[in-house]
Design a protein that fits this description.
The chain is of the alpha/beta class. The chain is built from eleven helices and 18 strands. The longest helix has 18 residues. It starts with 10 loop residues before the first strand and ends with a helix.
């Protein structure tokens, strides 16, 4: 159990023991299915924890120059890089930091592959494909929604792939199950299987939430083993983000005021949904709060409000078993993935601290933020 008195408020706190549990499961899937599973920085990029990750996995995936640099400089290996569009001023450095580069369009491939070929770097290139199928219901997170800007449909590929395309990248999931992957593979093979003999690797993207309690890991392994049996020459890659840090830590906060309007009580916190938990507003979803239940069935009902000036910086309702008090700690569960990578300093609100509760039961602070961090961002 985390001793919160050893951390500042607010603070993101990851538990090493829970992280290692997820990493062990992911490594087991990779080993048993004979696939490669790599960390997607777009979900989690807390680089001070990378030495723990490197005990279980070897590579990561990047979507920008800065992420690619982080892979090489801090994770210690070159990135599997995909971007919707590369720009010429950055591409040479991206090549230097990448083992794999996936292009989003044939235009991008035709423009930049000559630089790869002439650059002297050992880079395997691929193209992102769109199977025009996804079961992701929230359109904001659906990479295959009608009119998507991601990937090439099968009708746009020539019968013989251009020299230099060695892999396909396909991403259709968001916190999805193995059964959704099964359906995706049916569409992917139906539309793109005729090119599989021409490529060396197949990246099945992210969104495979294999560390969720109800995820059917055995079904996933069977799916991947079956795919490997059909195409034994293909190196299979998965690049989940959330699965690595799913339910591995919290965001702690405190009540700083309680206001009431038209019978609605709002506990204002020293954190912000729009600044520190943006997926709650974008997805949207209502996170679990320790010691409270979602809804208005209990005796003490509160909205929880952020401390920014955005009118919609609140969520609710939560039911508590007691009256909240100013200074009381509020703990948001499962706040390690898609939080720190998205935080902003709107209104000059500082980021929560970042810390680790080690497996030995010690507090290790990675980072605290101050006025200079805000000032430097605005310069």
């Amino acid at each position: 159990m985390i001793d919160f008195t050893h951390f500042p408020s607010p603070c993101y706190i990851m538990e090493e023991e829970l992280l290692r549990k997820n990493l062990s499961l992911i490594k087991s899937v990779a080993d048993r299915a004979e696939v490669e599973i790599i960390l997607a920085f777009k979900s989690f990029a807390m680089w001070r924890s990378f030495p723990i990750f490197r005990e279980y996995i070897g590579h990561s995936t990047a979507s920008s120059l800065y992420e690619a640099r982080l892979a090489l400089e801090e994770f210690g290996s070159k990135a599997h890089t995909y971007s919707p569009a590369y720009i010429e001023d950055e591409f040479s450095e991206i090549m230097h930091c990448s083992s794999h580069i996936t292009f989003n369009s044939m235009t991008q491939f035709n423009r930049f592959y000559p630089l790869v070929k002439a650059g002297g770097e050992s880079v395997s290139c691929g193209i992102r494909v769109n199977p025009e199928y996804s079961e992701v219901e929230t359109e904001l997170y659906n990479p295959c929604a009608p009119g998507t800007r991601f990937g090439i449909t099968a009708d746009l590929l020539p019968d013989t792939l251009p020299v230099g395309i060695e892999g396909f990248h396909c991403h259709c999931h968001c916190e999805s199950s193995s059964f959704e992957l099964e359906h995706t593979l049916e569409h992917l093979e139906a539309k793109f299987g005729r090119w599989f003999s021409q490529i060396k690797w197949l990246n099945l993207g992210g969104g495979h939430l294999m560390t969720r309690k109800d995820y059917d890991v055995e079904h996933l392994i069977a799916l991947l083993q079956s795919l490997k049996a059909r195409y034994p020459h293909l190196h299979l890659i998965l690049e989940p983000g959330s699965a690595f840090t799913w339910q591995t830590g919290v965001l702690t906060s405190e009540v700083v005021d309680i206001v009431e309007s038209r019978g609605i009580r709002t506990a204002i916190l020293n954190v912000s949904f729009t600044c520190h938990m943006p997926d709650c507003l974008e997805m949207p979803y209502q996170p679990t709060v320790r010691g409270a239940s979602i809804g208005d069935d209990g005796p003490y009902i509160y909205r929880l409000g952020g401390n920014s000036c955005l009118s919609g910086d609140y969520m609710g309702n939560w039911s508590f078993d007691h009256e909240l008090q100013i200074g009381e700690r509020i703990v948001f569960e499962d706040m390690i993935h898609y939080t720190m990578v998205k935080t902003n300093m709107f209104n000059g609100i500082h980021h929560p601290g970042i810390g680790l509760w080690t497996k030995e039961g010690n507090a290790e602070m990675y980072k605290r933020f101050f006025y200079e961090d805000y000032r430097n961002r605005m310069s």
